[in-house]
User: Which sequence fits this backbone?
């Protein structure tokens, strides 16, 4: 035992010497430290002012997934079914077939056409040249534009347009079933073809809002917009609301912090340092050429919360030292000495929680991980170096010291009773109860789903404008907004051969039998119609021919969105009843099974495009990455804790409450109907990273008292009087801070806030009650420890 202790003392003393060296450099050069942080803050603050919201379609999708690679390979022909907007123009006064409204529809079409970022060649509406009709007459096949060149707005012309809409089968797809609205389908370019710069979704949606929605809305026309770009635009537009909630949270936390310490000086310095951390984080993002996408825009608050969590520990220990007669400088030095190792370890654990998100191959989540990791990196400097130096100047006011003494005395009876949880008569039932709760959590989380579970955009509340627009489209049109595109690939100029057409036809019939598939659109459906049309419209001829001349003739004149120019890729579009994960999984499995049985080197059946196909790929990546991410989070944080305390039993005691919190969080998600997706997945990892702070601070304080010879309960009691108070205050304060998010107009922010509230509270309770109970029970076990605990009992 002695040899073990001596060997362990060598690296420990080296660490203490390093801490002592940093302490001397820091506090002997306080002015230089403040000047350095002032200059860095001014520079990074200036750069932060240049930061703008940033979004990208490709960052929202898992570009490494085979489905997405297939989509990107054939993006030009698939774009009309993937990154596409539907601009719905409604006549609130009646049908669209009036001279005035048709002219308004033409103006809307022209306005949309000239907005930068629109793929003008694939734009389609009643007024575009690619809106064509075809019919079979006794004289043969006739075709023409839906709105002919001879259109003049007269009653006869309007009657002809109505007839052409029915001929073109556009009722229910481009024209509402009740003829009261029409759709302009707007595919978007991800990059500007001239400059190569990525599409600015903020500028695009602002132009659409001002030039189309507001302009024509003032003329009594209802404009509704559905699509990915509009979702991103609405999220960016909600940044002001997010900033408002951030401000409310800062004010609330500042008020609670002042109520806790009753010292304006330390409160102001703490909040200022935490805000400075956020500003420097944003400035570094700008220096690195990064931006804030809609899903990372909440990260600055998380960094602020981390800063408050660590700063409260600093204030609490400084109060305790000054209450024992130390000067502000001496108290700050002792606080730095006591908190540098556990504080840095806790911040490293936070960083691990963020960095493990990089294993998820979705750009927006990876950028969130980078953004948050930069924030933690800044927090190490501001919390570990700047805050102690500032506290050495401002100290704690006499009123604050009196409040500390009063609170400590009034809290002692409570802490004495709480410290009893380390006794076996309380610890054993507590641990057994936690195991029972873990089992309940496992049972409740069985219903946890992957992906979106609601119609429309789950980022918004059901009553949000976007979801109302989406509901209107679903109610008044036959075709779904959830499109799953399968790519049928053949050698060049082979797509219209009988063998290819027959195989594609069998694929379509198989997929129409899958639950959730409502209809199919493809080259081969158009070819069968053309063959039938060229044979007097007789349904008996609606089949493919082995005569290649007939097949080539049937392909002629088919819309470019149904086949690429060299007849090698023919998208098969499946219109789904919804985009739930189960529906997408059924479709993907059916396509995979058919491709495995019938695919060949010449005829490849590839997945997937369309908004539903891309979501299926996203769900697949999240499903396969979630467990791996959580395993990495717990494994790496466990190693960090093990390195800090050199004890397996302490590691188990710290990590067990976090695991229980994670399971309970997933159980709550399942019961609330929240799927694991881009907006919710990071919360789980962040909760583990942030939650471990409580345990590290509390046990490191306990360890100090154990080294002084106190028994376990006495050490826990002494730790509760200092660190325990700040842990409880931090958990409750942060929970109240994010609790305001439930009133946000953004559903994903409200959901994130609720989950964070639960994690903050559960992790706090776990650190104060479950951690010491588990540690006490494990003391006599086979686990090795760094120190010998003296227990007089």
Assistant:
């Amino acid at each position: 035992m002695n040899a073990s202790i001596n060997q362990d003392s060598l690296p420990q003393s080296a660490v203490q010497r390093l801490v002592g060296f940093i302490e001397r450099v820091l506090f002997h050069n306080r002015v230089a430290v403040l000047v350095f942080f002032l200059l860095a803050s001014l520079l990074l603050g200036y750069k932060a002012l240049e930061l703008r919201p940033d979004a990208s379609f490709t960052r929202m999708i898992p570009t490494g997934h085979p489905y997405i690679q297939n989509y990107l390979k054939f993006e030009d022909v698939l774009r009309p079914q993937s990154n596409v907007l539907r601009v719905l123009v409604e006549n609130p006064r009646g049908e669209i077939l009036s001279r005035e409204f048709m002219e308004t529809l033409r103006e809307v079409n022209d306005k949309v056409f000239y907005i930068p970022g629109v793929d003008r060649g694939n734009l389609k509406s009643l007024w575009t040249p690619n809106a064509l009709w075809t019919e079979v007459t006794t004289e043969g096949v006739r075709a023409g534009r839906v709105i002919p060149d001879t259109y003049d707005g007269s009653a006869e012309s309007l009657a002809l347009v109505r007839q052409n809409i029915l001929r073109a089968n556009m009722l229910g797809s481009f024209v509402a079933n009740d003829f009261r609205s029409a759709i302009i389908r707007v595919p978007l370019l991800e990059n500007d073809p001239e400059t190569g710069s990525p599409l600015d979704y903020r500028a695009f949606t602002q132009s659409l809002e001002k030039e189309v929605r507001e302009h024509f809305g003032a003329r009594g026309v209802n404009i509704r917009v559905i699509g990915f770009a509009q979702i991103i635009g609405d999220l960016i537009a909600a940044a002001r609301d997010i900033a408002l909630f951030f401000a409310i949270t800062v004010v609330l936390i500042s008020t609670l912090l002042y109520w806790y310490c009753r010292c304006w000086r330390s409160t102001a310095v703490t909040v200022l340092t935490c805000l400075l951390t956020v500003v420097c984080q944003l400035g570094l993002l700008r220096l690195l050429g990064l931006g804030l996408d809609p899903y990372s825009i909440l990260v600055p608050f998380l960094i602020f919360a981390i800063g408050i969590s660590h700063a409260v520990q600093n204030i609490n220990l400084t109060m305790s030292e000054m209450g024992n007669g130390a000067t502000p400088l001496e108290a700050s030095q002792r606080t730095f000495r006591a908190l540098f190792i556990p504080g840095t370890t806790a911040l490293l654990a936070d960083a691990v929680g963020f960095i493990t998100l990089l294993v998820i191959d979705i750009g927006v989540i990876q950028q969130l991980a980078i953004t948050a990791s930069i924030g933690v990196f800044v927090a190490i400097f501001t919390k570990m170096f700047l805050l102690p130096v500032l506290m050495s100047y401002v100290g704690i006011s006499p009123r604050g010291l009196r409040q500390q003494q009063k609170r400590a005395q009034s809290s002692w009876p409570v802490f004495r009773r709480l410290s009893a949880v380390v006794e076996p008569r309380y610890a054993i039932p507590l641990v057994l109860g936690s195991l029972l709760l873990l089992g309940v959590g496992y049972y409740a989380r069985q219903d946890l789903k992957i992906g979106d579970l609601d119609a429309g955009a789950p980022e918004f509340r059901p009553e949000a404008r976007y979801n109302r627009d989406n509901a209107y489209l679903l109610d008044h049109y036959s075709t779904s907004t959830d499109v799953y595109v399968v790519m049928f690939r053949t050698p060049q100029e082979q797509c219209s051969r009988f063998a290819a057409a027959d195989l594609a036809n069998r694929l379509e019939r198989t997929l129409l039998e899958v639950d959730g598939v409502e209809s199919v659109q493809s080259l081969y459906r158009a070819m069968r119609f053309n063959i039938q049309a060229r044979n007097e419209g007789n349904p008996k001829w609606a089949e493919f021919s082995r005569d290649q001349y007939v097949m080539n003739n049937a392909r002629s004149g088919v819309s470019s969105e149904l086949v690429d120019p060299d007849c090698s890729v023919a998208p098969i579009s499946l219109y789904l009843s919804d985009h739930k994960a189960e529906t997408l999984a059924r479709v993907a499995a059916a396509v995979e099974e058919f491709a495995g049985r019938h695919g060949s080197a010449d005829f490849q059946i590839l997945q997937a495009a369309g908004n539903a196909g891309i979501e299926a790929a996203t769900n697949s990546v999240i499903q396969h990455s979630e467990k791996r991410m959580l395993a990495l989070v717990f494994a790496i944080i466990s190693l960090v804790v093990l390195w800090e305390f050199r004890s397996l039993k302490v590691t188990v005691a710290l990590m067990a409450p976090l695991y229980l919190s994670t399971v309970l969080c997933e159980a709550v998600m399942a019961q609330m109907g929240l799927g694991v997706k881009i907006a919710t997945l990071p919360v789980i990892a962040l909760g583990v990273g942030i939650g471990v702070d409580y345990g590290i601070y509390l046990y490191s304080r306990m360890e100090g008292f154990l080294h002084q010879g106190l028994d376990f309960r006495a050490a826990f009691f002494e730790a509760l009087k200092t660190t325990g108070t700040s842990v409880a205050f931090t958990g409750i304060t942060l929970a109240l801070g994010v609790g305001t998010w439930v009133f946000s107009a953004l559903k994903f922010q409200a959901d994130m806030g609720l989950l964070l509230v639960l994690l903050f509270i559960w992790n706090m309770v776990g650190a104060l009650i479950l951690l010491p109970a588990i540690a006490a029970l494990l003391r006599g076990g086979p686990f090795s420890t760094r120190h010998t605990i003296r227990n007089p009992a």
In short: Residues 1-11, 781-793 have pLDDT under 50 and may be disordered. The domain at 2-49+238-447+646-778 is CATH 1.20.1640.10 (Multidrug efflux transporter AcrB transmembrane fold). The radius of gyration is 32 Å.
